[in-house]
């Protein structure tokens, strides 16, 4: 929870009005290795709704908020002979966009689609 005047005399801001403050985040990671040959991991990140930019007390309908966001990433690893490893990573597995609104949830301001990223790599140790 955040609250205070933040250097603005006569103005008292609370949690959802403080620029740069994200009230709640959560991260989780689950990984599994099989016979030190194969590995998989899944990570999850949650970011709560938060204001973007300075809070405008005189015109609150112009305030921009980012909606809550859930991200899932998956990584696969397979160890080859001769100290070689193949890695496959998928970031933003479900193509979760960044969604912004002004004032109220039904006034959508912007939607950013970063897309899903797939990475394939070959790693060698000498």
Summarize the structure in short.
The chain has 126 residues and is mostly beta strands.
Helices, strands, pairings?
Layout: E1 25-34, E2 38-47, E3 50-52, E4 64-66, E5 69-80, E6 84-91, E7 98-102, E8 108-112, E9 117-124
Notable traits:
mainly beta; elongated; 5-stranded antiparallel sheet; 4-stranded antiparallel sheet; 126 residues
Please give a structural write-up.
With 126 residues, the protein is mainly β. The chain has no helices and nine strands. The chain has strands at residues 25-34, 38-47, 50-52, 64-66, 69-80, 84-91, 98-102, 108-112, 117-124. Strands 1-2-5-6-9 form a five-stranded antiparallel sheet, with no helix packed on it. The protein has a four-stranded antiparallel sheet with strand order 3-4-7-8, with no helix packed on it. A hairpin with a 3-residue loop joins strand 5 (69-80) and strand 6 (84-91).
- Helix-strand topology string: EEEEEEEEE
Describe the global form: elongated
Classification by helices and strands = mainly beta
**Largest sheet: number of strands, sense, barrel closure:** 5 strands, antiparallel
Radius of gyration: 21 Å
| Strand content bin | over 45%
Helical proportion, percent range: under 10%
Q: How many individual helices?
A: 0
* Mean of residue pLDDT values: 89
Strand order of the largest sheet: 1-2-5-6-9
pLDDT < 50 runs, ≥5 residues: none
Distance between the termini: 50 Å
Number of domains: 1
The count of β-strands is 9
């Amino acid at each position: 929870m955040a609250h205070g005047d933040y250097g603005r005399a006569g103005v008292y801001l609370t949690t959802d009005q403080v620029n740069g403050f994200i009230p709640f985040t959560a991260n989780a990671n689950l990984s599994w290795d099989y016979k030190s040959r194969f590995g998989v991991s899944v990570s999850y990140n949650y970011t709560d709704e938060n204001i973007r930019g300075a809070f405008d007390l005189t015109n609150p309908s112009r305030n921009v908020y980012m909606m809550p966001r859930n991200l899932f990433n998956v990584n696969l690893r397979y160890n080859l002979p001769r100290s070689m490893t193949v890695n496959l990573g998928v970031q933003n597995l479900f193509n979760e966009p960044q969604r912004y609104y002004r004032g109220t949830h039904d006034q959508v301001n912007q939607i950013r689609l970063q897309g899903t990223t797939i990475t394939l790599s070959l790693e060698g140790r000498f």
